[in-house]
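Appendix B. Worked example

We walk through a single record from start to finish. Start with the input: the chain for Cytochrome b5 reductase 4, Phrynosoma platyrhinos, length 457.
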Amino acid sequence: MEYHPGGEDELMKAAGSDGTDLFDQVHRWVNYESMLKECMVGRMALKPFTAPLKGKHHILKETLMCCFARQLLDCDFLLTIEKHKDVIPKTNMASSLTSSVSYGTLTKNKSLDNSSKEVVPSYDWFQTDGLITVVIYTKQKDMNSELVIADLQDGKLRGEIIVKDYSYLFHVELSYAVHEDIIVQVSEKVGKVEFVLKKKETVSWKTLGQLLENHNSFVKCKDRGLYYRKCKLLSKANVTHDTRLFCLMLPPGTHLQIPVGHHVYLRQTVTGAEIVKPYTPVSSSLVSTFKNPSFSDKMHVFFMIKIYSSGLLTPVLDTLQIGEYISLSNPDGNFTVSQVEEVEELFLLAGGTGFTPMVKLLNYALTSSNILRVAKLMFFNKTEDDILWRSQLEQLAHNDARFHIQFVLSEPKEGWTGKKGKISSSFLSEFVKRSKVDSKILICICGPLAFMEQGIQ
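Next comes the structure step. The output line below is what the pipeline stores for this chain.
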């Protein structure tokens, strides 16, 4: 059982019944008939029979277990058969097996706590004439594509899967060349993740490849460290006088979806030193009619970044030319959308570019929640010219009656009729007010440190 990827629970689903349909759900591409033919060493005996052996008659209880060949990446095999030692000759049966199936499991880690041991993923891989498929069994029923990060670069496949507070890493240098694009499929109900690669040559791979550092490891997310890939700058547009909307394109071999409320790090070498700064991606637009249809959300990442003349990184970003590259990390953060799903009233407080985390959060709340009654944003800025996406926010409020926007300026010009001042208890006591006594609410705040400290206080 310990080598079966699905474990006892999965096998028991077919106990006493035809398991073909269940098998096809998980391994539909596997030619099981040829696999079983290679493994078969005899027909099942329905009853004990007598066989002559060295002039004597013995009752042979022939209990051949299901032969399960497990080919590791280093070409070792494991074959378990119960047999009568005088009837079946001692031969290296495993050496005669040829299979394009490889099963990988994680060795026991004594440092893992009991709860994490139960969710340690395992993997196997299969091939056809044109495809290589790596399958990772996460044993999680709520797996989704945002928890899967894949990078296929320079003949190396790196797949990272987030399982609760842990990170599972699959890292292999492939035996042969494959096309640079990768297909990632996630079966949420069974927790299965598939990486599908296209072979460049129609050859049979004897091994998947060479194991790389930390392959098949399962550690706390905080201990994994960040991985970067180079992304191309596709476009750069003005949002305000000092803020730009950058669009980066992920490499064709990368699968990366940044969860709501999470940020990434941008890294660039400036005068010989590596500069790293965190940024929260935004949507391409708040209002669907403004979206550019040529930009796919799966391959493009948008950032709204304020340029500081004395900054270390932002002036470099501002001079970045279309077609040039910048390194982007894996997502980081602990916010979960489950915090939004049961909320009836959502209150957002943003100061300046602290507005950026609110973009995807607001979009998710308005499009995915069935019980949300009110979503309110109080947006603090110095002047009218500093307000990010003002027209889109006003348009969104016009389109969706649940959304309300309030602009607050600390240094307004003459003629401003809106709210004036800085974040204070007088503002918030009026703004954060339940429409019903028992309403479930969520309050989110983001902005400069002083703004957040004052707001929380």
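Two observations about the output. The CA atoms of residues 85 and 91 lie 11 Å apart. The first strand starts at residue 49 and ends at 53.
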